[in-house]
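Lab notes, practical 5.
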Amino acid sequence: MSNLKNKKIIIGISGSIAAYKACEIIRLLIKSGALVTPVMTKNASEFITPLTIQTLSRNKVYLNMFATDFNWEIEHISIAKKAELLLIAPATANIIAKIASGIADDALTTLVLSVKCPVVICPAMNSEMYKNPVTQKNILYLKKVGYHFIGPEKGELACCDNDIGRMSEPEKILSEILNLKKLHL
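Output from the prediction step:
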């Protein structure tokens, strides 16, 4: 896994119960030598605290586009220019829809529109939301324009259903990132 050494990876975390898995993804990325910058949606912070993510990533969490504790750089642009990979895990139906529609109304969606690096999206949602024709249309469109998807898997969901929609496990996500040839990692 040494091909992640000093790679600048942004992890975007959206508001899903699967946000807890982002902790393990961050741990695995750092263990592999990556430099991890976390970006969270406000909804993600309802599931896991920015302090936890900041501590694990050893880096500032970008949460608020209008924070007053900033430097002179336009942060989402300066972060985007340095990124070698943007990993969104978990990615809710909402975040996928916003990306597909070009909506940039928070730190994460604004960043997505600013990066030139590969974007990997790891869906996590209820099976009915995942199977919804609108969600499927959004995913197909994003794949068509070059976004990469890992998962989701079939398994036990937060609602106790056993169906598609469970975010892939962190080890699988890391393995698939390493195997994506287009990422040049």
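Observations recorded by the TA: Strands lie at 8-13, 35-40, 85-91, 119-123, 148-149, 153-156, 162-166. Residues 20-31 form the longest helix (12 residues).
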